[in-house]
């Protein structure tokens, strides 16, 4: 369609942009005039018009409201108004494309007052809050599930086991809390059970917890273990008392003696524990513990004085290396056999008194005495320990332990060969006796055993193992030449 010349001029004058012309008459002044006219025509447009129908364009040809336009408008607002400036320079830098969302930075630069001031920051925020952000800025709905706290007990326990975020504060009623505890017990996860119990401890009274845990044995064991670990002794005692578990309560109270360092205070504490409702075996143990510590204190005080005076040979030759206080009963018996052997039964330090007071078995008593006296090389005491007399007055060696064990203990304490041979001959098993004799090089025992067995061949074989011309060699030769012995082979 071809327009006439007047129509064509009207078209270019009413356009957003001024037309390019090669006329010499279009000087700088006329260009500025046309530009101002274009600006005025833009300002007359209503701000509420649809952006799709009217596109606002800045001096640089960029859409009004775009990010780049807003930035430039901010920079130019600190200067004088456009009327006091010359023709604006065209920015040749690339411009940003128009944003597709309904919100842009241009909203922060609209509505300037007559004095040229901008709206306050709070007003801008109010305007921003009324707008909806683009859908791509929102998180997926599934991600918000981690911040929702209306899970069921099953879902909560599952999240606790898998290490995800969870909340126990939403379980407010007693019914919901117990359902959560039961679900944690069914999961068989100790950490989850303990975490739930800690929450119940914070949110329920101790009476309610005691009542509900009576029927939940697994949860009760975890709760008792937790209270022991954190050291809440009073609360644990109250719990056991409310459950009627008096024996456990007594044992827990007795266990406190481990935290008492002073022996006299510990003895007094143990004395107070004697009357607690223990089981029969435990009551005997506590009574013995108190009696033993009381006796150890007496022995320690007396032996310190004797040792400091230096008038007793055993303390001078074997000085004490440690205190006897808080030692076990067998250690105390060994100490008594080492330093106080032979004392009358009326003294607290007498081995016989200790054996009778604490009901030490015969076997344990023999082993302890043998070890202590063999350590001192007191072989006469060792011999008298095993020597007994029958009703006819004959002496005989008897031992509640096997004589092969006696030989091992004597050998460890470097007993002489004569002592070893005496007890080796009392070993009833022939093969064991020969094996021990070979181990400890007791030749006479081996020779006499083969003689009793009338085994000439074994005696000849063993003669090749002893030194030629030695007393053992001569003894074997004499036996082999003895015509009165009836050999089996």
Keywords:
mainly alpha, two-stranded antiparallel ribbon
Strand content: under 5%
Low-confidence sequence ranges: 22-26, 44-55, 78-117, 127-136
**Mean pLDDT score:** 79
Structural class: mainly alpha
How many helices? The count is 24
Indicate the percent of residues in helices.
40-55%
Spatial order of the strands in the main sheet?
Answer: 1-2
* Euclidean distance between termini CA atoms: 148 Å
Largest β-sheet summary: 2 strands, antiparallel
Output the radius of gyration.
Answer: 53 Å
Spatial shape: elongated
Tell me the number of strands.
Answer: 2
- What order do the SSEs take from the amino end to the carboxyl end, as H and E? HHHHHHHHHHHHHHHHHHEEHHHHHH
Explain what this protein looks like in three dimensions.
The protein is mainly alpha-helical and 489 residues long. It is built from 24 helices and 2 strands. The chain has helices spanning 5-13, 28-43, 67-76, 121-129, 153-162, 174-187, 190-203, 206-213, 217-230, 233-242, 246-254, 263-273, 280-309, 313-317, 329-339, 351-357, 362-375, 379-386, 403-412, 417-424, 430-440, 443-453, 456-463, 471-480; strands at 387-389, 395-397. It has a two-stranded antiparallel sheet with strand order 1-2. Helix 22 packs parallel to helix 24. The longest helix has 30 residues, at 280-309. Mean pLDDT is 79; it is low at 22-26, 44-55, 78-117 and 127-136.
């Amino acid at each position: 369609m071809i327009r006439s010349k007047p129509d064509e001029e009207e078209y270019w004058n009413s356009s957003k942009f001024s037309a390019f012309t090669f006329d010499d008459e279009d000087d700088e002044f006329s260009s500025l005039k046309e530009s101002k006219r274009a600006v005025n025509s833009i300002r007359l447009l209503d701000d509420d018009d649809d952006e799709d129908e009217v596109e606002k364009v800045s001096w640089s040809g960029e859409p009004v409201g775009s990010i780049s336009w807003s930035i430039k408008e901010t920079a130019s607002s600190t200067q004088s108004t456009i009327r006091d400036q010359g023709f604006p320079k065209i920015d040749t830098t690339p411009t940003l494309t128009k944003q597709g969302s309904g919100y842009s930075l241009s909203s922060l630069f609209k509505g300037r007052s007559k004095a040229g001031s901008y709206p306050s920051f709070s007003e801008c925020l109010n305007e921003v809050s009324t707008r909806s952000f683009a859908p791509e800025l929102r998180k997926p709905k599934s991600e918000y599930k981690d911040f929702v706290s209306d899970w069921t007990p099953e879902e909560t326990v599952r999240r606790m086991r898998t290490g995800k975020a969870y909340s126990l504060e939403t379980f407010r009623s007693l019914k919901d809390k117990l359902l959560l505890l039961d679900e944690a017990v069914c999961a068989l996860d100790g950490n989850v059970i303990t975490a739930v119990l800690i929450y119940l401890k914070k949110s329920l009274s101790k009476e309610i917890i005691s009542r509900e845990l009576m029927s939940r044995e697994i949860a009760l064991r975890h709760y008792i273990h937790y209270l022991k670990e954190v050291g809440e002794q009073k609360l644990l005692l109250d719990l056991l008392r409310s459950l009627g578990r008096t024996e456990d309560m007594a044992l827990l109270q007795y266990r406190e003696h481990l935290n008492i360092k002073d022996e006299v205070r510990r003895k007094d504490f143990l004395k107070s524990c004697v009357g607690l409702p223990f089981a029969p075996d435990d009551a005997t143990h506590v009574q013995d513990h108190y009696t033993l510590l009381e006796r150890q204190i007496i022995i320690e005080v007396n032996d310190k004085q004797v040792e400091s005076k230096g008038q007793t040979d055993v303390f001078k030759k074997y000085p004490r290396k440690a205190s006897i206080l808080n030692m076990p009963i067998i250690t105390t018996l060994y100490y008594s056999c080492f330093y106080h052997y032979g004392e009358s039964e009326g003294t607290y330090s007498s081995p016989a008194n200790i054996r009778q007071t604490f009901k030490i078995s015969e076997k344990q008593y023999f082993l302890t005495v043998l070890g202590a006296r063999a350590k001192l090389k007191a072989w006469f005491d060792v011999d008298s320990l095993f020597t007994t007399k029958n009703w006819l007055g004959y002496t005989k060696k008897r031992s509640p332990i096997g004589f092969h064990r006696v030989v091992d203990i004597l050998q460890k304490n470097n007993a002489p060969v004569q002592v070893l041979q005496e007890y080796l001959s009392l070993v009833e098993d022939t093969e064991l006796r020969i094996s021990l004799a070979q181990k400890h090089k007791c030749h006479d025992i081996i020779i006499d055993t083969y003689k009793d067995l009338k085994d000439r061949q074994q005696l000849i074989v063993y003669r090749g193992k002893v030194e030629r011309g030695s007393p053992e060699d001569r003894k074997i030769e004499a036996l082999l030449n003895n015509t009165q012995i009836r050999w089996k082979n």
